[in-house]
Amino acid sequence: MSKLDLKNVTVIYPPPTKDTEEVHALENIDLTIEGNDFVVALGASGCGKTTLLNVMAGFIQPSGGEVLLDANPIKGPGADRGVVFQQHALLPWLNVIDNASFGLMLQKKNPAERKKIVSKYLKLVGLDEFLNHFPYQLSGGMQQRVGLARALSSDPAIMLMDEPLGALDALTREVMQELVLDIWNETKKMVFFITHSVDEAIFVATRLIVMSPRPGRIIKSYNLDFNLRFFKNRDARQVKSLPEFLAVRQEVLDIIHGDEIRIDQG
Amino acid sequence: MSFTNRLKETSKSYLSKLFGRGPVKPGEAYGAPGVGNSMGISIFTSIALIFLWWLITNMGWIKPLFLPSPEAVIAKFVDIWGEEFSGATLWGHIKASLFRVFGAFFLACITAIPIGIAMGVNRIFRGIFDPPIEFYRPIPPLGYLPLTIIWLGIEDTQKITLIFLAVFAPMALSARAGVRSVTIEQIQMAYSSGATRAQVIWHVILKGAMPEILTGMRIGIGFGWTTLVAAEMVAAEAGIGHMVLSAAEFLVTDVVIMGIIVIGAIAYTFDLFMRFVERKVVPWKGKM
Ligand SMILES: Nc1ncnc2c1ncn2[C@@H]1O[C@H](COP(=O)(O)OP(=O)(O)O)[C@@H](O)[C@H]1O
Ligand SMILES: [Mg+2]
């Protein structure tokens, strides 16, 4: 079982313009993701969610603190952490199967081997009928499915997803939430998932961290199991209207809202 | 389907349009201005222009010395195809010019594209090549023509160099701009799929820059054609530009016009070919 450890992570960006101050995007973040965790980061825009993911992905080195994957410090991006972006990051000149097996191609695996590995994941995301389509021939939801298959294909220890469903319409989004949960359940991978939808966060998370900006930090953490309840009867709408669900939702909204008021005043 | 049936079908569709039941195209009425097929109009304009040319010359409104008739130009074309004019047959002139333009174009392709890419992905290359390219780029080739003669003489080397310089700058700048058309997400995607820096450049940036590289090639060869006549101005034995210039000296207007048409036709044909290549190589261009 893998484990991702953030210890006292601080990220400071240089001042965006002259005569402004440095941006404390993250301050003293402690977070451990392990086993079968599905960790969701929730917070208003600008509270450092993407920065946190970028640190885990290795796209930026923290100004302070350390990030360890199975006790090894993260020095840069790598195939052991699969990233799914908000806007799909597919390569328009490759078809679905080549996009999904891009990482395997980089590892110099031969086409037959690539196809064998990636077919499994394309089937998992429901794209096995679209192998030869090009990204521009797919809907937004399907493009994100390709992104998921691609991130899965290198068999990473953790999936890092930055608002992967943010650009989708409400109906597609609900379908995709279930898909992400199914993938998680099937592959037993750790997931770090960013969203600013409260309902989505509570529905998919086993652990929900609520973040607050300036400086970016975790102000509240919940252990949840609504996703497990979903697997029992596969009725998302029923789960989302459970009294417990609504209670958590109300509490989280109060925190975020109170936080906003506090910021407006100060 | 028989001809009368087809006729009926067509008139039916016109009729239904007339009565407001034809198919509608989205964006036709309130869409982006300028969409739709313009091929028919272009063909009509071309025919109208040639007809106008035919009319004013055959009616004797303009003297053949200033504008010879289309028939005279065609006759000249046939004449010179077999017979020498100013040192070579027409085919000889064409061959000499094609060699210069495509020689320069080829040399520009193998230098400007790699240098442009290198400028896009590497600070040091950008620092080195930016000042010279940006400095000479706006200078008209006629401006540095004398210098190329002093340095390189009057052989093909000088002519190809002159055309090469005109082609090089737009191609290098397009390739450099192409590098920028790749999104940061695509690059991060590649790195997090385990790519090395070299793999990112090869598999993501280079491919992503292809549309602009091809556009740069089209712009570049265009500059090549415009510089051809300048390159053949001094001491050429053959070449379309040379042919036009020496014909102009003796007021052989039909050869001048014929030469212009030949250059235009070759350039246009090659551009059509490049557009075909674009559709094959980057079918995804502009679609995402
Ligand atoms: N490259 C950067 N340079 C300077 N400031 C940045 C940069 N990226 C993000 N920031 C700032 O850091 C803060 C956190 O940004 P981000 O992590 O993108 O938040 P989120 O993803 O939660 O919206 C914001 O105030 C943002 O303006
Ligand atoms: Mg963000």
Describe this structure in words.
- The complex is a heterodimer of chains A (266) and B (288).
- Chain A is of the alpha/beta class and 266 residues long.
- Chain A has one domain (3-80, 156-265): Rossmann fold (3-Layer(aba) Sandwich), CATH 3.40.50.300.
- Chain A has helices at 49-57, 96-100, 102-106, 111-124, 140-153, 170-187, 198-204, 226-233, 236-240, 243-265; strands spanning 3-13, 23-34, 38-42, 64-69, 72-73, 81-84, 158-162, 190-195, 207-212, 217-223.
- In chain A, helix 4 (111-124) packs across helix 5 and helix 7 crosses helix 10 (243-265).
- The N and C termini of chain A lie far apart (44 Å).
- The mean pLDDT of chain A is 90.
- With 288 residues, chain B is mainly alpha-helical.
- Chain B has one domain (72-281): Orthogonal Bundle (MetI-like fold), CATH 1.10.3720.
- Helix content of chain B is 74%, strand content 0%.
- Chain B is built from 12 helices and no strands.
- Chain B has helices at residues 3-18, 39-58, 70-82, 90-121, 123-136, 141-152, 156-179, 184-192, 197-208, 210-231, 240-249, 253-281.
- In chain B, helix 4 (90-121) runs parallel beside helix 7, helix 7 (156-179) runs antiparallel to helix 10 (210-231) and helix 11 (240-249) packs antiparallel against helix 12.
- Chain B is flat.
- The two termini of chain B are 41 Å apart.
- The mean pLDDT of chain B is 89.
- Classes of the chains: A alpha/beta (266), B mainly alpha (288).
- The complex binds adenosine-5'-diphosphate and magnesium ion.
- The site of magnesium ion has 2 residues of chain A, from helix 1.
